């Protein structure tokens, strides 16, 4: 299972990402130019920006010019849109880092903690009197 809050934000923002052009770079690599509508300034106005997503279908690699995955470890809305455009229904495992997964066993949770009841050792009793 995926920690979904940040991924959900990206999925909700998908409506602002529209398909643009596509260029076949090689037999398996395609570069998609996507158009994103964003809000800027005060008062708010809408502008568009272009982003490039390179898709290698052989390696199932998605690289976006916004570099969100490289910086934050979260797959961006642009790559998700490119997955949709290439009919990839499941996010490849390499784009779901262990830190975002709920089904990964965390080693720091294996730390044993001793809970003492009424059988306190002498040092604890002495510390309690200070
Ligand atoms: Zn992106």
Can you tag this structure with a few keywords?
single chain; 130 residues; alpha+beta; 4-stranded antiparallel beta sheet; 4 helices; 28% strand; elongated; binds zinc ion
What can be said about this structure in brief?
The protein has 130 residues and is α+β, with helices and mostly antiparallel strands.
Order of helices and strands: HEEEEHHH
- Assess the beta-strand content as a share of residues: 25-35%
Query: Between the first and last Cα atoms, what is the distance in angstroms?
Result: 48 Å
Principal-axis shape: elongated
Could you outline the blueprint of secondary structure elements for this entry?
Elements: H1 4-12, E1 17-24, E2 29-40, E3 45-56, E4 61-64, H2 68-72, H3 77-85, H4 122-129
Antiparallel strand pairs: 1-2, 2-3, 3-4
The protein binds zinc ion (ZN).
The site of zinc ion has 7 residues, from helix 3.
């Amino acid at each position: 299972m995926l920690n979904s809050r940040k991924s959900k934000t990206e999925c909700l923002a998908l409506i602002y990402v529209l398909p643009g052009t596509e260029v076949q770079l090689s037999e398996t690599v395609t570069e998609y130019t996507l158009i994103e509508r964003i809000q800027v300034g005060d008062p708010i106005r809408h502008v568009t920006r272009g982003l490039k997503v390179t898709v290698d279908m052989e390696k199932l690699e998605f690289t976006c010019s916004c570099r969100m995955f490289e910086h934050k470890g979260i797959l961006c809305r642009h790559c998700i849109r490119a997955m949709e455009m290439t009919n990839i229904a499941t996010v490849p495992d390499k784009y779901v880092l262990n830190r975002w997964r709920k089904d990964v066993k965390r080693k720091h949770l294996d730390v044993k903690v001793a809970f003492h009841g009424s059988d306190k050792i002498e040092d604890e009793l002495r510390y309690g009197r200070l």
